Amino acid sequence: MSELKDLQYLSGFGSEFESEDPRCPGALPQNQNTPQKCPYGLYAEQLSGTAFTAEREENRRTWFYRIRPSVCHRPYTPIPSGNFIPEWDKIKSTPNQLRWRPFDIPSVATDFVDGLNTVCGAGDPRTRHGCAVHVYACNASMTDKAFYNSDGDLLIVPQLGVLNVTTEYGKLIVKPNEICVIQQGMKFSVEVTGESRGYILEVFDGHFVLPNLGPIGANGLALPRHFLTPKAWFEDRQVPAGYRIVCKFQGHMFQAIQEHSPFDVPAWHGNYVPYKYDLSKFMVINSVSFDHCDPSIFTVLTCPSTKPGMAIADFVIFPPRWSVQEHTFRPPYYHRNCMSEFMGLIQGSYEAKEEGFLPGGASLHSIMTPHGPDAKCFNTASNAKLIPERIAEGTQSFMFETSLGLALTEWGYQTCQKVDPDYHKCWGGLKKNFQHDSPAA
Ligand SMILES: O=C(O)Cc1cc(O)ccc1O
Ligand SMILES: [Fe+2]
């Protein structure tokens, strides 16, 4: 494997970056984007992440200075899409609470792309509206193979195994408890060192942004400087046997062969970039008096819809923290939500479900489906002494929360064989405690 230790990154969110591989000083044109002849005989190529005319705050594009333009490839041909496919209209949806046991890791050699499986989703990549939830499970590196997604952005949440990600912008190492976002059109290749598994949120509408902070003020939650973007790194490598560029286009997989590595960018500048973020850096804000805050207080990134405050998808985490609320039932409340809640567990356990919800597994509570703490959690938390308490040291669960109605794929509901038929029983022990003659405090 290539040298992936001690990487250095550019820091900031939504910034205008520029980067040159130190092996090619001066590769970046200084005064314009498209000189008649670029330094070192490079080709200039723009990657647009928003419409040319998008408002200035939202406008995203990057200029690559590369050895060959990306167009130097043979025609695309369809390849099997496997279980990585937006077919969520094949089976009838269910409003039931769903929980998945940890997803299997293949026993045969499988790379990151071949190990992608779609669990549920909504909308349509053609009309550029919707989102999808995938899991990946793999054990082999992608060799002479890169992937890009025409349909939207991928927010990748590793749960097991380190992802060594090479992109056109340079390299990223992404470990469990970190996430990375690879946006629409960005080519990347993943090397792994062993069994690897994780979750992916794909959004078709637009890009992830940091949530507004409102009364929190200028600082808090995920801090912009903790978002890390690769520094330029390139290889000038011929691959006569063929380098495979795989893409998902309108929900289907295609491949184009070329005779060189696509990671041939000695310099780039722009604000349309891949990035990673370490979840342990999240500045947790919560109630220090009483009651349970809505989980939106833990939003790391949000992909907004056109309706203010109503996301296509939020990425929310439940990090280790102090719990100090007085005269309060501290765990999550019972509720019914107008949003869909897909949850996964990276490590440790989740306070509302100490049992049954396991690292590498998942749950889905659909729009208006009742859910909340299991009976054991209710009984324990209702009687606990309310001293300041550290919640779930070393834990990290997360939620993909969407305003869209997530529907299941055949793989998610049946083929994966991980749906736990007994999930509903975790609420079975909730007793009637009503005592008419003793009103609550
Ligand atoms: O359902 C869940 O476990 C997620 C969740 C957590 C919380 O603290 C409040 C509401 C909520 O939906
Ligand atoms: Fe919930």
TrEMBL record:
Gene Ontology, cellular component aspect: cytoplasm
Listed pathway(s): Amino-acid degradation; L-phenylalanine degradation; acetoacetate and fumarate from L-phenylalanine: step 4/6
GO MF: homogentisate 1,2-dioxygenase activity; metal ion binding
SUPFAM superfamilies with a match to the protein in the record: RmlC-like cupins
Stretches assigned to the Homogentisate 1,2-dioxygenase C-terminal domain: 280-434
Keywords: Dioxygenase, Iron, Metal-binding, Oxidoreductase, Phenylalanine catabolism, Tyrosine catabolism
Short name of one Pfam family: HgmA_N
This protein's record includes keyword Oxidoreductase: yes
Cofactor: Fe cation
Binding of homogentisate, residues: 350, 371
Gene3D superfamilies in UniProt: Jelly Rolls
InterPro entries xref list: HgmA_C, HgmA_N, Homogentis_dOase, RmlC-like_jellyroll, RmlC_Cupin_sf
Lineage top rank: taxon: Eukaryota
EC annotation from Swiss-Prot or TrEMBL: 1.13.11.5
Binding site for Fe cation: 335, 341, 371
Gene Ontology BP terms: L-phenylalanine catabolic process; L-tyrosine catabolic process
Enzymatic reactions: homogentisate + O2 = 4-maleylacetoacetate + H(+)
Protein family per UniProt: Belongs to the homogentisate dioxygenase family.
UniProt xrefs under PANTHER family: HOMOGENTISATE 1,2-DIOXYGENASE (PTHR11056:SF0)
NCBIfam families: hmgA (TIGR01015)
This protein's name: Homogentisate 1,2-dioxygenase
Native organism: Darwinula stevensoni
